[in-house]
Write a structure and sequence with these properties.
Its main location: membrane. By secondary structure, the chain is an alpha+beta fold. Helix content is about 55%, strand content about 20%.
């Protein structure tokens, strides 16, 4: 694996090197052939060549390929010198250095200046003329004659003449050949099949005719013999109108090609000894100078003119596109845009505003907003008048306004307006541009929230009043308490005493606070109480005990609870139980009365010891507990309470004995083939016995079972109508339930062909079929954890992401929609009828809740719901149409097909997609 990778890397690297060497070779060959072409022209001095093509070829090659291909220029120059002129090696190397440095300098400077090789900008043409033609050519024209003088090939007094001719040759070569090569290599050679209309054919014929005329005029002017009369006239600039025409008609490419054509004809005429330059020049050098001046003027003029024309055309095209985009935005945008003049009259009303308010341009333009889109009243008139008067001085006061507006049909809507003042070039006020956004749904939601807030404030006030009442009751209760409360520390000091009954205090408060228990209480009671304080602090648990004090010659009994407040202090609560003690004595005295009372009860009462033997019984209804022939005094509980609950009975008895607390439970017994239910209370009587009180609750149990069954039915019926969280909230609070959800996916589905099917089936068959279909959908909705909202005839509405938000709500809805298509295909085969489903899905913000007080229904509101309904109604049977919002959430996991833009009622043009299926993993 690594060997193949290494080999592929070597092949790729060698391929790049090969391409690099091939391009260097191509540049060298082009330079060499350009030089051979220049020196092969008859009548041209080698050192004073009027146009030196290799200089332009070198600069164009590095501009097109990059500076790193400079070795091609150096090699081309070197081989031209060696093979063409055949000088010494010492003369060829400096020649290669000078030509390469000249090209590299020009390209480097142009790149730093942001030069574009298309020459379509005026600054590119100027930078090329200054740095590429004039400045860079100074390098080789300086170094070349210098090395020739140093080698003795030219005398020093001829240096400036040779340098001047060298500069002109290189400058003309760059000026003529570099733009030509740049244009040719950037020209897209494509075969096009234009629309052959009359205008296009006319333009082609005119262009061909002018091109022929240009060639003819240039040939006549520049190839005329010196003895001809025409050569004496100053006609050399006669082709200039054609160059201007080419620059305007074809841009930079036309200007470069036509100027090159004229240059070639002019050079050819001079070579053949004809044309105005030979006729006017006293010597061949003077004729060459005239030729070079001409070539420089026409080429420079054509480059600058073409760049100016192209730049203007691009600016005009950009302005035209911007205007088109502006018109599309204003006319077709989903925003209300209108303009008011200085008289507060509507002077512009875009298409969306016309659709939104219901007014046409003829009905609204020139009218005041008051009485048309604003309700006519004194407040609206004052607001408009104030805005028109003050917006110039205080524009920030009117930048954003929310107003209630009117549609043509009288419907009231809320619009958020963004206003901007319009001024002319002198800063004078000329009107107002207003951009509006429909915020009706938001305002409805805000009003609903305001109502909810008002209700919440009322409830808070009621609860605050309740708490205040409760606090007052607690204060009164505390004030009415007769208990004594002490705060005692670890050392037994009494730090604080609270008592509303001074008669219970052994000493006055002033004599007890700050004193020890030994100083407050008698010695015996003080030692016992101090011990309980230490126990509570060590165990950090409450200690309960009783004690008595002699107060005012009366014995007062107390029940005390000592609980730890911290690691150093306890709270001691003592309650007077003197009356309770008296009552206990009286109860003991009335024990016989209690037995008689118990015997009159209908409950069954047993006294059972720790070995589960019955030692006493007071049965008033024995047939409910055991057969009459059984003696229950001596047997154990397992022997006479037959059944499966004996182990449970034993555990309850042991628990009551161990915890010293009452144990309550329920049990059932089969008696005479009838099952009876009992409520039993087992209370400890002593260390080894308990009292068992059993009451027959069979009738209550039966009533509870029936009530529970009815409650379960009611709960299930409510859950079939409302989501479980909403149902729970509604049971606790019957007020309006409304919540806003920032991201919910809504699906509408409609059966297509159901109306025609209803004419073929009996009503009961039709209802059974619809029930079977929707029951299948309901089961699928429950499995996916979605929320069915409602069915409307043969339409079906489901939402994902509420009432409990979930991240994958869009994916769950997509799975539901795809499965519903498959289900409908099976039903179609089953009933052998044309029955399809049309599904629409959208994702967005909704408000969901329950309104009203009868026949509750959980419903959704918002623009997202309307758009989802439009997706279904504008959809295609057998397809799932989704909006852009849903597509953005599912495009990474599901396959879609983009549908052409459709016009959606109330929304305008929308881009929608068809959900095809899930992407393979």
């Amino acid at each position: 694996m690594n060997l193949n990778k290494s080999r592929s890397l070597r092949l790729s690297k060698s391929s790049k090197i090969g391409q690099y060497l091939a391009k260097i070779t191509l540049v060298a060959v082009a330079y060499f052939l350009g030089g051979k072409l220049a020196v092969s022209l008859p009548g041209v001095d080698l050192l004073g060549s009027s146009v030196w093509p290799p200089a332009g070829i070198a600069q164009a090659a590095l501009l097109l390929l990059g500076i790193r291909y400079w070795p091609g220029v150096a090699l081309g120059t070197f081989f031209f010198e060696i093979l063409g002129i055949k000088p010494s090696l010492m003369l060829a190397l400096p020649a290669a250095f000078g030509a390469t440095l000249q090209a590299v300098f020009a390209v480097g400077v142009l790149h730093r200046l942001g030069f574009h090789t298309s020459l379509s900008r005026l600054k590119d043409a100027i930078n090329f003329l200054v740095f590429g033609v004039i400045i860079s050519t100074q390098i080789n024209s300086t170094l070349g004659p210098l090395r020739m003088c140093l080698m003795g090939l030219v005398s020093w007094n001829q240096y400036w003449e040779v340098r001047w001719n060298w500069f002109l040759g290189d400058a003309m070569g760059v000026l003529i050949f570099t733009p030509l090569l740049l244009v040719l290599f950037q020209f897209k050679w494509e075969i096009r099949y234009p629309n052959l209309n009359l205008k296009y054919c006319k333009n082609c014929l005119v262009s061909i005719a002018l091109l022929i005329l240009l060639f003819t005029v240039s040939w006549i002017v520049f190839t005329a013999k010196t003895e001809a009369a025409i050569s004496r006239y100053p006609l050399e600039y006669l082709p200039f109108p054609f160059i201007i025409w080419a620059a305007i008609q074809w841009g930079q490419s036309g200007a470069v090609l036509t100027s090159f054509l004229i240059s070639c004809i002019a050079i050819l005429g001079v070579i053949n000894g004809g044309g105005p330059f030979i006729a006017k020049g006293a010597t061949i050098n003077q004729a060459m100078l005239f030729l070079q001046a001409f070539l420089g003027v026409i080429t420079t003029t054509s480059l600058l003119l073409a760049a100016t024309v192209t730049e203007g055309a691009l600016a005009e095209d950009l302005l035209r596109k911007s205007e088109i985009k502006y018109r599309e935005l204003v006319e077709s945008g989903n925003s209300i845009i209108l303009k008011l003049d200085t008289q507060a009259k509507i002077s512009f009303f875009n298409e969306f505003a016309q659709q939104f308010f219901g007014f046409s341009e003829k009905e609204i333009l020139g009218k005041s907003p008051i009485g048309t889109i604003l309700e006519k009243n004194s407040t609206a008139e004052k607001t408009i008048a104030a805005m028109m008067t003050n917006i110039l001085n205080n524009p920030e006061l009117y930048q954003q306004i929310e107003q209630e507006n009117l549609r043509k049909n009288g419907e009231k809507v809320w619009v958020s307006w963004s206003n901007k003042m319009l001024v002319d070039t002198q800063g004078s006020f000329i009107g107002i541009i207003a951009i509006g956004t429909d915020i009706t749904e938001r305002r409805k939601a805000e009003l609903a929230l305001e109502n909810l807030n008002e209700e919440l404030e009322i409830r808070v006030a009621e609860r605050t009043a309740t708490l205040a009442t409760t606090e007052a009751e607690l204060r009164a209760l505390f004030a009415a308490m007769t208990d004594v409360i002490l705060i005692v520390d670890r050392q037994g000091y009494c730090r604080k005493i609270v008592s509303t009954n001074p008669a219970l205090l052994l000493k006055p408060l002033s004599e007890q606070v700050g004193k020890t228990l030994q100083e407050i209480l008698p010695a015996a009671q003080a030692d016992i109480c101090f011990h309980h304080v230490q126990t509570a602090l060590i165990t950090q648990q409450t200690v309960n005990f009783e004690y008595s004090l002699l107060i005012n010659n009366q014995q007062v009994c107390f029940s005390a609870n000592i609980s730890p407040l911290s690691e150093e202090q306890v709270i001691w609560v003592a309650r007077d139980i003197s009356d309770r003690k008296i009552l206990e004595d009286k109860l003991r005295d009335s024990y016989s009365q209690l037995n008689a009372f118990l015997e009159s009860m209908t409950d069954v009462i047993l006294v059972i010891d720790s070995q589960a033997n019955n030692i006493k019984v007071a049965p008033t209804n024995p047939q409910r507990l055991y057969p009459p022939e059984i003696d229950i005094i001596s047997p154990t509980i397992e022997q006479f309470l037959v059944g499966e609950n004996t182990e449970i009975f034993l555990s309850q008895i042991h628990q009551a004995l161990e915890t010293k607390e009452i144990v309550t439970f329920e049990y059932n017994l089969p008696i005479d083939e009838t099952e009876y239910w009992f409520s039993a209370s087992i209370a400890p009587l002593s260390e080894d016995s308990v009292i068992w009180v059993a009451r027959d609750i069979s009738d209550r149990k039966q009533a509870e079972a029936e009530l529970r069954l009815e409650k379960e039915r009611s709960e299930q019926l409510l859950l079939n109508i409302l989501p479980e969280p909403i149902a729970n909230r509604l049971k606790q609070d019957s007020s309006v339930i409304a919540e806003s959800f920032n991201e919910v996916t809504i699906m509408f589905a409609d059966l297509v062909g159901f109306t025609s099917l209803s004419t073929k089936l009996q009503p009961i068959e039709l209802v059974n079929l619809l029930n079977e279909i929707f029951s299948t959908f309901d089961q699928l909705v429950e499995e996916l954890g979605l929320e069915k909202i409602k069915t409307i005839g043969d339409a079906y509405m489901v939402a994902g992401g509420l009432p409990i938000p979930r991240i994958d709500h869009a994916e769950a809805i997509a799975e539901l929609a795809l499965t519903m298509l498959n289900i409908m295909q099976k039903f179609q085969l089953q009933i052998n009828e044309e029955l399809q489903i049309r599904i629409g899905i959208n994702t967005g913000i909704v408000v969901a809740g329950v309104i009203g007080k009868k026949k509750f229904i959980y419903d959704l509101w918002g623009d997202a719901v309307n758009v989802a309904s439009r997706m279904e109604s504008h959809g295609i049977p057998g397809y799932i149409q989704v909006t852009e919002a849903t597509y953005q959430r599912l495009k990474h996991k599901y396959l879609f097909a983009k549908r052409a833009e459709i016009h959606v009622k109330g929304k305008g043009k929308m881009t929608t997609y068809f959900l095809r299926g899930k992407k393979p993993i």
